[in-house]
């Protein structure tokens, strides 16, 4: 990779905007300490002389106006044992954006540059402190929605994925080394035979490992992005009421008018450790109303993209044509069928319903009275963890970029195998195998294009 090491000093506010007891303004780079020192009250400790990894009480003073801005704590961390492998000073100041912003402005006037989003982590990567998959884990960690997704990110930050990829590449390296032997001693026929044998062996081995990793991809993606759960049903069965109940919040409008929800509403909620992206949809029915019709279209789209469907029926009414249609539409999907309004007299023929549903069980609930919701939450959890062998320490692939690279490496290995079948010369096989090796390396950030790096890091939040 083409790394031009920048050594200018960057600064940003690292705490989220809003009210809080403290905010943190962070400096990283060669001049971090001298810039911090230039805004202290000079009668206080000299930060350029303090030992690394120490914390100091002091003030922030504008050297031009002599105005004291805040009373702060300075944490001084000298390279190389820091997050960015550069000198870092973190200033803990009073909370609220005004103070933190004033301090940041002052640091910029004293020679620091405003950091781009993700630039601290980008430097950690460029300075070799972590590989790309670990840097991506930092981002996942910030966005983690449940304990499970946090574990996943932590594992990756730990370098678990890197180690695994490293071991795959090691296997390919053994085969590639054998090719060199082959090139050095071309006069021995059995060397050539030996070489293709080892290449085949290793290609198959690595393909199997890749397949195993890719199997975990869906699971990993769900942990990261949430299980897309669409609440589907005809109008007025209580979909929005259910959404509000699971969220413990009145997000969606509920009325007794059919067609209340006109658009898709998405909300994240943690149900017993399962991260759900709950999607409330417009009730599905034939309608002349143009706005509602667009809503119904969107509901159908949400349905087709869902990982899990909560199909809501109204058990105080008999089964309608639309119910039948929805039952048949979801028959191949992961679904939970709910009979809502269990508090009202029952008009729904359960035998008929079971006939329509086949194997799928149904669960009577009453959102109004809060009955059956506990069971529903348990069912969601069981469904989720049943489809997941849930190896506690498994390395999950959760990142689309990683999935794409693994798939490409797998294809390159297919080409190696096909080449062996048709007795292709060893040096041509070597090209494909080297490509597989390179592609796996890209997961950790080797040979990755500068633009991709910039784009990846720009997804971070400011100050990270
Ligand atoms: N009796 C009874 N009424 C309920 C129950 N759940 C919801 N309702 C009522 O049913 C009506 C419709 O509820 P909504 O949640 O708006 O239904 P919806 O499925 O979102 O309707 P649309 O958005 O129009 O498709 C409201 O008056 C709710 O108060 C329940 O368990 N029992
Ligand atoms: Mg609704």
From TrEMBL:
Predominant subcellular localization, coarse grouping: cytoplasm
One Gene Ontology cellular component annotation held by this UniProt entry: cytosol
SUPFAM superfamilies registered for this protein in UniProt: P-loop containing nucleoside triphosphate hydrolases, TrmE connector domain
Residues that coordinate or bind (6S)-5-formyl-5,6,7,8-tetrahydrofolate: 26, 90, 129, 464
Subcellular location: Cytoplasm
Enzyme kind, highest EC tier: hydrolase
InterPro entries: G_TrmE, GTP-bd, GTP-bd_TrmE_N, GTPase_MnmE, MnmE_dom2, MnmE_helical, P-loop_NTPase, Small_GTP-bd
Binding of K(+), residues: 236, 255, 257, 260
GO terms assigned for molecular function: GTP binding; GTPase activity; identical protein binding; metal ion binding
Species in which this protein is naturally found: Vagococcus teuberi
Record-given protein name: tRNA modification GTPase MnmE
Binding, Mg(2+): 240, 261
NCBIfam families attached to this UniProt entry: mnmE_trmE_thdF, PRK05291.1-3, small_GTP
């Amino acid at each position: 990779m083409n790394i031009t090491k920048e050594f200018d000093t960057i600064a940003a506010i690292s705490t989220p905007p809003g009210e809080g007891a403290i905010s943190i303004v962070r400096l990283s780079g060669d001049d971090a300490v001298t810039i911090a020192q230039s805004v202290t009250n000079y009668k206080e400790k000299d930060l350029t002389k303090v030992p690394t990894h120490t914390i100091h009480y002091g003030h922030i003073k504008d050297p031009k106006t002599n105005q004291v801005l805040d009373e702060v704590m300075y944490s001084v961390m000298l390279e190389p044992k820091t997050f960015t492998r550069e000198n870092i000073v973190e200033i803990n100041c009073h909370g609220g954006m005004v103070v933190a912003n004033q301090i940041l402005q002052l640091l910029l006037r004293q020679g620091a540059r405003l950091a781009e989003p993700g630039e601290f982590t980008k430097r950690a990567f460029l300075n070799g402190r972590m590989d790309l998959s670990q840097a991506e884990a930092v981002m996942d960690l910030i966005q983690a929605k449940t304990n499970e997704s946090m574990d996943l990110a932590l594992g990756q930050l730990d370098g678990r994925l890197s180690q695994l990829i490293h071991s795959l590449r090691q296997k390919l390296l053994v085969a590639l080394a054998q090719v060199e032997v082959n090139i050095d001693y071309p006069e021995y026929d059995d060397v050539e035979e030996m070489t293709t044998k080892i290449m085949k062996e290793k290609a198959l081995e690595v393909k199997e490992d890749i397949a195993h990793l890719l199997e975990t991809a869906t699971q990993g993606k769900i942990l990261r992005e949430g299980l897309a759960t669409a609440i589907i049903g005809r109008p007025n069965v209580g979909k929005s009421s259910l959404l509000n109940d699971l969220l413990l919040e009145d997000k969606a409008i509920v009325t007794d008018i059919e067609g209340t929800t006109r658009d898709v509403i998405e909300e994240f909620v943690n149900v017993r450790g399962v991260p759900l992206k709950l999607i409330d949809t417009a009730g599905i029915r034939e309608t002349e109303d143009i706005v509602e019709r667009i809503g119904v279209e969107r509901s159908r789209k949400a349905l087709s993209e869902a990982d899990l469907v909560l199909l809501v029926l109204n058990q105080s009414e008999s089964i309608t044509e639309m119910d039948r249609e929805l039952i048949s539409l979801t028959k191949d999907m992961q679904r939970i069928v709910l009979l809502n309004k269990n508090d009202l007299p029952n008009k729904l023929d359960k035998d008929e319903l079971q006939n329509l549903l086949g194997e799928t069980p149904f669960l009577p609930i009453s959102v109004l009275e809060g009955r059956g919701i506990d069971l529903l939450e348990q069912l969601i959890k069981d469904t989720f963890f049943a489809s997941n062998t849930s190896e506690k320490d498994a390395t999950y692939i959760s990142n689309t970029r990683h999935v794409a690279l693994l798939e490409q490496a797998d294809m390159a290995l297919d080409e190696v195998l096909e080449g062996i079948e048709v007795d292709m010369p060893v040096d041509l096989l070597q090209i494909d195998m080297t490509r597989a090796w390179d592609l796996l390396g890209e997961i950790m950030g080797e040979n990755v294009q500068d633009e991709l790096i910039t784009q990846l890091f720009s997804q971070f939040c400011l100050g990270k």
